């Protein structure tokens, strides 16, 4: 792909990660639980990887459990906290979580739990007063994402975790989009559970990690063998684990680049598009935002049409729609932010990584404005001249 700008969806496997994994797909195939030399070698590689993850987050290696993905980590954290406190039947989470959290909350709601979904303002920020007053004596868990995958908006996680701690309530954060972009220091961040995913930080798909703080309750979500000290059954995904360790080292190494060069590229893209394309808005707070993410909306356009046309120029981005059940509804995140209907449909998300170059940005700045002009000329909704003007504050 000439210009891959969809890194919040998934990332390229880093060459260093690929190199580290390849031998494990050839001769080094031992089971870490085996007593022979091949197994011992695998076990050693696995523990080295665990140490790298722990070093990247500043926690103890024993506090890291390998999972199959971010989704499993989120499910496990929530399940653990609720199973360990069966008498507590209230959860606090937010309207803008990833489905890996949102659908777990909905599942427990159907089982009779009360769930408070914190709302966000038009910039994607939480109402902290709503948060402070949401706690109840039977609140079991708070689950708030560290940074939003669509808008890039960063949550005040430290402040929110401290408030939960004051109430004696467990705190989980989905940090899948934060790792590698925001420095994480678990000695200075009072969360009980934190989740990351390999394929969002240049490791392969199918590997993730869950931090569980010492003394935080834990109940295995995956029952089976004694792997991970009985905390997660199933023979370990050694290639994934080793790849994740290398990716974590790289994520720490690249964090400055993400916050300087990558941020500058994102800002140039944002300024260039805003200047070239009238009737465009930025979704989400521009200050408290991941350095790699730009969610931008163009009035009177269908996001999917833009994506297809960009794709012809080798530009990969994503839209702000959740293509569920065949209808192109604006995503739950944009709806929660109250992005006007006429804009929400024309939302694009560009998400960069350390592997992007200035040429990628030049390509988008050259190709997107004429695409928008063409689509707007074809749009029946453009000026309402056919009596079809979309209502701005359509109830959604
Ligand atoms: C991608 C993502 C997930 C899910 O991770 P998988 O490894 O794909 O299961 C969860 N939360 C956020 C914020 C994400 O961006």
From TrEMBL:
Domain of life: Bacteria
Domain Aminotransferase class V: 4-363
Catalytic reactions of this protein: (sulfur carrier)-H + L-cysteine = (sulfur carrier)-SH + L-alanine
Pfam family, one: Aminotran_5
One GO molecular-function entry: iron-sulfur cluster binding
Enzyme class: transferase
SUPFAM superfamilies, alphabetized: PLP-dependent transferases
Record keywords: Iron, Iron-sulfur, Metal-binding, Pyridoxal phosphate, Transferase
One GO BP: amino acid metabolic process
Keyword Hydrolase: no
UniProt record similarity statement: Belongs to the class-V pyridoxal-phosphate-dependent aminotransferase family. NifS/IscS subfamily.
Subunit structure: Homodimer.
Full protein name: Cysteine desulfurase
């Amino acid at each position: 792909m000439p210009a891959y700008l969809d890194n919040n969806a998934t990332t390229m496997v880093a060459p260093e990660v690929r190199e580290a994994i390849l031998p494990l797909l050839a001769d080094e195939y031992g089971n870490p639980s085996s007593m022979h030399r091949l197994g011992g070698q695998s076990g050693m590689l696995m523990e080295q990887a665990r140490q790298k993850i722990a070093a990247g987050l500043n926690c103890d290696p024993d506090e890291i459990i390998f999972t199959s993905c971010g989704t499993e980590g989120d499910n496990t954290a929530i399940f653990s906290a609720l199973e360990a406190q069966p008498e507590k039947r209230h959860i606090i989470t937010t309207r803008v979580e990833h489905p890996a959290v949102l659908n777990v909350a909905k599942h427990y709601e159907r089982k009779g739990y009360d769930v408070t979904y914190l709302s966000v303002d038009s910039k994607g920020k939480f109402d902290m007063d709503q948060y402070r007053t949401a706690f109840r004596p039977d609140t079991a868990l708070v689950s708030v994402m560290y940074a939003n995958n669509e808008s890039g908006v960063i949550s005040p996680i430290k402040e929110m975790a401290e408030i939960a701690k004051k109430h004696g309530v467990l705190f989980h954060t989905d940090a899948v989009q934060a790792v590698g972009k925001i420095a994480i220091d678990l000695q200075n961040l009072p969360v009980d559970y934190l989740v990351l995913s390999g394929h969002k930080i240049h490791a392969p798909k199918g590997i993730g990690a869950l931090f569980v703080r010492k003394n935080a309750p834990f109940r295995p979500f995956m029952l089976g063998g004694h792997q991970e000290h009985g905390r997660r059954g199933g023979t370990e995904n050694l290639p994934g684990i080793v790849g994740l360790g290398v990716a974590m080292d790289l994520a720490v190494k690249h964090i400055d680049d993400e916050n300087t060069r990558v941020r500058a590229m994102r800002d140039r893209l944002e300024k260039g598009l805003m200047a070239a394309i009238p009737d465009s808005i930025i979704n989400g707070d521009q200050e408290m935002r991941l350095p790699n993410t730009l969610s931008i909306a163009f009035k009177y356009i269908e996001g999917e049409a833009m994506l297809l046309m960009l794709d012809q120029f080798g530009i990969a981005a994503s839209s702000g729609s959740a293509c569920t059940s065949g209808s192109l509804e604006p995503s739950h995140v944009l709806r929660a932010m109250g992005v006007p209907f006429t804009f929400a449909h024309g939302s694009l998300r560009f998400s960069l990584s350390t592997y992007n170059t200035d040429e990628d940005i030049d390509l988008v700045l050259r190709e997107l404005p004429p695409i928008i002009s063409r689509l707007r000329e074809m749009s029946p909704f453009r000026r309402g001249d056919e009596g079809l003007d979309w209502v701005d504050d359509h109830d959604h």
